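[audit] Reproducing an earlier prediction to check determinism. Same input, same settings, fresh worker. If the tokens differ from the archived copy the diff job will pick it up downstream; this log only records the rerun itself.
[audit] input (129 residues):
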Amino acid sequence: QNYPLYIRSVPSENELKFHYTVHTSLDVVDEKISAMGKALVDQRELYLGLLYPTEDYKVYGYVTNSKVKFVMVVDSSNTALRDNEIRSMFRKLHNSYTDIMCNPFYNPGDRIHSRAFDNMVNSMMMQVC
């Protein structure tokens, strides 16, 4: 339903800016999904790749079969990240999200408050920085 379940930014003072970036990128995700049409039904996962670059950031997208959308915003000056590394980061996010959904105490649609998910995201962010 296009509302965020989890947003994490470093440094945290830019969180509102990233909120805006994530919400605007959801329109691009929807456009890419509708352009692909029936082809995405046959795929197990859908890595959308670079949604759009800005002067400061690159925005990447990923969609699961259950239409859960992941958006990752990376600093443009980070040239060490290649496409396959971004793809593997999305897979880790997807696997961790799946673990949360398997928790019987988690209500689908609620904000994510999981220490394991936080640790996984923090380790990915430390790896990138």
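[audit] rerun output stored. Observation attached for the diff report: Helices lie at 15-36, 83-101, 115-128.
[audit] end
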